[in-house]
Amino acid sequence: MEVNSIQQITTPWAGSRGLTTGLMLTEIYQDVWTGQLLLSMGMPIQAAVAPQVIYQLQFDYLLGYRVLEGTDALEEMDDDDSGSDSQIHLITPSRFLIWFHQQSQGIHLDKDIQHYRIASWDYCVDVLAAQEPLVKQHKQKE
Length: 142
Description:
It is built from 2 helices and 9 strands, in the order βββββαβαβββ. The protein is 12% helix and 41% strand.
């Protein structure tokens, strides 16, 4: 298998400043009618209880996404270890975005598409969007 020669750089997304880190991905919801993608990030409380949702990321202008888990996610995230504790990064240049433009035959080249990577314990969600996500904070239960 040929090694991909494009070195991706991860930069913490400015909108994630101040968000709780070390969370797990608890839900992925896509509304195919509106094109909206909602990612819920949560904190485990007990082993047999669903994690408490801390915040959600809402992508309104979605062009594509992929979900990797386990060792596949770790291999993808090894590209650039920025040393950041942020769970949301921008990826530039992006092999995923290059692939997307090839598959769509360049019809979206006029859009300012960003590659967002949301990394949790054992999942990595890569999102291609033409707008920044909206962060919906949830009140934590005492």
